[in-house]
């Protein structure tokens, strides 16, 4: 019954046999949270409230987290009693296209717990337009599919694509996804890679 209550409240709680203190971490909904320290190494997934509860012993812990559409700062905490912390979760600001027919699609590539990927894109990384927007008079499907180097900077892919087009993204070890380009000036496509 306790596990059912945790699911209903959106709290992912894992207890260790000797954890005596409660560490409550607030991030954003569905954030992947990693608690390391004092001999422990735990991954959690925050529920819809963005809250995670861990049972810990006294000691120092590093809290890392990642969530699509956010940059989340790591935080260090010393636990000597029941403790609650709120992680700083900054929404990603996306550039916007000034062309009413195009949308700037953005994908931030991050390591497992938040650090931007600084290496170059994998060889052969592509974004291919597989279906034209319904309203388009232009056939975009013959556009180059290899992601140009200038589209990748500081862990972010940012490309202008026709609004309403269906695209296929192949990014090597970062995954692949079919993305329908939004009818908007900008779009974060990270949810397609979750």
Give the neighbour order of strands across the main sheet: 1-5-2-9
Large-scale geometry: elongated
Distance separating the two termini:
29 Å
Low-confidence segments, ≥5 residues, pLDDT <50?
1-17
Helical residue percent? under 10%
- What summary fits the major beta sheet? 4 strands, mixed
Count of β-strands: 17
- Tally of separate helices: 1
Mean pLDDT: 79
Our Rg estimate from Cα atoms comes to 20 Å
Q: Can you write the helix and strand succession as a string?
A: HEEEEEEEEEEEEEEEEE
- Helix-strand category: mainly beta
Features:
disordered N terminus, mainly beta, 44% strand, 194 residues, single chain, four-stranded mixed sheet, four-stranded antiparallel sheet, elongated, 17 strands
Question: How are the SSEs ordered, and which strands pair?
Answer:
Elements: H1 2-9, E1 12-14, E2 21-26, E3 32-37, E4 40-45, E5 51-56, E6 59-66, E7 70-72, E8 75-79, E9 83-86, E10 89-91, E11 102-108, E12 126-131, E13 152-153, E14 156-162, E15 166-170, E16 176-180, E17 186-188
Parallel strand pairs: 1-5, 2-9, 11-17
Antiparallel strand pairs: 2-5, 3-4, 3-6, 6-8, 7-10, 11-14, 12-15, 13-14, 15-16
What features would you describe in this structure?
With 194 residues, the chain is mostly beta strands. Helices cover 4% and strands 44% of the residues. It is built from one helix and 17 strands. The strands form five sheets. A four-stranded mixed β-sheet has the order 1-5-2-9, with helices on one face. A hairpin with a 2-residue loop joins β3 (32-37) and β4. The longest helix is centred in the first third of the chain and has 8 residues, at 2-9.
